[in-house]
Amino acid sequence: MSASSNHYCNLLKLCCQSANHSQAKTIHSHIIRTLPSPETFLLNNLITTYGKLGNLKYARHVFDQIPHPNLFSYNSLLSVYSKSRRVSDMQSLFNCMPSRDAVSWCSFIAGYAGCGMVADAVKVYGLMLRDGAGNLSRITFSTMLVMCSSQGCGDLGRQVHGHVVKFGFEGYVFVGSPLIDMYSKVGMLLDAKRVFELMPERNVVMCNTLVTGLLRSGLIGDAECLFGEMSEKDSISWTTMITGLTRNGAGRKALEKFREMRLGGLGMDQYTFGSALTACGGLLALQEGKQVHAYVVRTDFVDNVFVSSALVDMYCKCGSIKAAETVFRRMSCKNVVSWTALLVGYGQNGYSEEAVRVFCDMQRSGVEPDEYTLGSLISSCANLASLEEGAQFHGQALVSGLISFTTVSNALVTLYGKCGSIEDSHRLFDEMNIRDEVSWSALVSGYARFGKANETIDLFERMLAHGLKPDGVTFIGVLSACSRAGLVEKGHQYFESMTKVHGITPILDHYTCIIDLLSRAGRLEEARSFITKMPMRPDAIGWATLLSSCRFRSNIEIGKWAAKSLREIDPQNPASYVLLSSIYAAKGKWDEVSKLRTGMRDKGIRKEPGCSWIKYKSRVHIFSADDQSSPFSDQIYAELEKLYPKMIAEGYEPDVSSVLHDVDELQKMKMLNYHSERLAIAFGLIFIPSGLPIRVVKNLRVCGDCHNATKYISKITKREILVRDAVRYHLFKDGTCSCGDFW
């Protein structure tokens, strides 16, 4: 090879390293001007350069200009077509080659394998064997094994392994590593271990491969043991352990490995930092996360989009939303992962409206959402009970095609269920091509919120019949449905089946469902007995649930016990005072009511004021009891005054027992008539067009009298009224409620 050819080859190599297309063309023009008859070796290098830079047209042009292309010329262009997934061009070139060697066959197989065309790759592999075993090489077997691994072809991989042994390649590390990787990825871990143990020589790559396989299978102990025995560990070894431990929920161990790696002075990459930050987020370890952040600042990864996105995610999971915003604002480059991390963070921290705002900013910046972004956004709309915005994003999912992703469809099923459109929720569920456990759980929970116990239980049984495994969320929906329908025995059966049949350990939420189940059914003594046998103490919700039922049943004894227990774990919770006051008020014990109110005042405890809101023309109208602040107050109060005599004529009798004030009956009835939900409903009757349902949201549980009154209003006005309170959905229609008066 001449000195000039060697010089040009070195320059072309630099062009590949810097991905400099224009410079490669400049060098090509110099070759044409300075070398009348360039050597074939140089032109082969030029073909490879254009191929690596993605310019297949120029690569083919150079090949066609070679007077007498040799085998290397053909292989160079064949490799370009193979790596570029140009199957048709690859086939044509291979078929017209005057001769072939091991490189030719390997490139041909790799082209099919890279496109996932397993059958074609196997056919070519067979043709190669018939052409002669001399064509086999370590690269051939590695290519076949990588294909088996990526396509999950365990049986084919085992056959290739047989050929590896038959032709004497089992001792090569270059073949052993992909063989171990293939077996571990298809779930044949014993075979992966056997290959590893029989290898006469092992290097760090092979050890890393088996460690990855062990961690992928959740065998943390085995992975730690192998890692400890490794005589040589590189940065990939440490990062593999940190990543694997994090994904297996062993965040604390992952952070310990991160510290050891840092003390050892080993180089870290974006995956090391990303996994360490994910571990911090999973552990809610804000201080450790800040320490990792400080270390990132001292490295070259402070502007890395992958690491910065992991920082945003970590701060969001640790509840430090302001820090997440700061990191996000300072990012010089943001991608869909960065935006999604902040959007999800807002949603997880209860800032659903901010999540919607972030999505709008993201679209204005020109970044297209993926299925995770849109799914998270729709979930935020579900938390806001914002059907209008959710429906808009439903349309976007249809237009973009992202609705085909299960993540997005599941979010939409949840959205419509939480917004009270259970029919739309079920329709979307039926239209899904693939339904997973989350899909079923979302629909089960949707029906449970409506108190449709029979439908909920039927769905749950169908889910089991389809062979799907329910999770804790599914059981919360089923147990809630049983509770609200008074199916005590059925609820107990499902609760027992969690551990005995499905291997799910109940958490506090499930025990709270059983407390609710027994309490709502009036079996307060059983509820007390159940609580004393629980493996953990109830939380504030559990005690408040029992206390609420004691108020409904006027049980002072258990009510006092529940109130005292609630004050012990949550002294500032007003429920222990308010609900017990209701019990005393119902018994006419106003002195006791006065004592409780004095105690609340002395301790600075305030009852959360009840409020209801309704959305009209993209604006939310909020009402509190006896509210006069609305510009439409005169119309609203006139509407209620007009409805009241019609309700009385239909048989409505005000229930003043929920009014905890020592005033006359007439004043109590007047106070009831102006509760926040009634003001919101009156607003809806005035402004929401007939034919459309009136949708009201309340921050507290709807009182018994308002529940009864709304039934009469729906009958008189012939309107559907949907009320979402702190407990569940109520669909009022023709004088009835979907909850069956059991909530």
Number of helices: 40
Largest sheet: 6 strands, mixed
On the 0 to 100 scale, the average pLDDT is 91
Can you list the strand order of the major beta sheet? 2-1-3-4-5-6
Total strands: the figure is 6
Radius of gyration: 34 Å
Distance between the termini: 89 Å
Coarse structural class: mainly alpha
In quaternary terms, these chains amount to single chain
In short:
By secondary structure, the protein is mainly alpha-helical. The model has no long low-confidence stretch (mean pLDDT 91).
Plain-language structure description:
The protein is mainly α. About 70% of the residues lie in helices and about 5% in strands. A hairpin with a 2-residue loop joins β5 (about 730-735) and β6. α9 (about 140-150) runs antiparallel to α10, α17 runs parallel beside α19 and α20 (about 320-330) packs antiparallel against α21.
Descriptors for this entry?
4% strand, six-stranded mixed beta sheet, 40 helices, mainly alpha, 6 strands, 69% helix, elongated, 743 residues
Topology:
Elements: H1 3-18, H2 21-34, H3 40-52, H4 56-65, H5 71-83, H6 87-95, H7 102-114, H8 118-131, H9 138-151, H10 154-166, H11 173-185, H12 189-198, H13 204-216, H14 220-229, H15 235-247, H16 251-263, H17 270-283, H18 286-297, H19 305-317, H20 321-330, H21 336-348, H22 352-364, H23 371-384, H24 387-400, H25 406-418, H26 422-431, H27 437-449, H28 453-465, H29 472-485, H30 488-500, H31 508-520, H32 524-533, H33 540-553, H34 556-569, H35 575-586, H36 590-602, E1 611-616, E2 619-624, H37 633-650, H38 665-673, H39 676-687, E3 694-698, H40 704-717, E4 721-724, E5 729-733, E6 736-737
Helix pairs in contact: 1-2, 1-3, 3-4, 3-5, 4-5, 5-6, 5-7, 6-7, 7-8, 7-9, 9-10, 9-11, 10-11, 11-12, 11-13, 12-13, 13-14, 13-15, 14-15, 15-16, 15-17, 16-17, 17-18, 17-19, 18-19, 19-20, 19-21, 20-21, 21-22, 21-23, 22-23, 23-24, 23-25, 24-25, 25-26, 25-27, 26-27, 27-28, 27-29, 28-29, ...
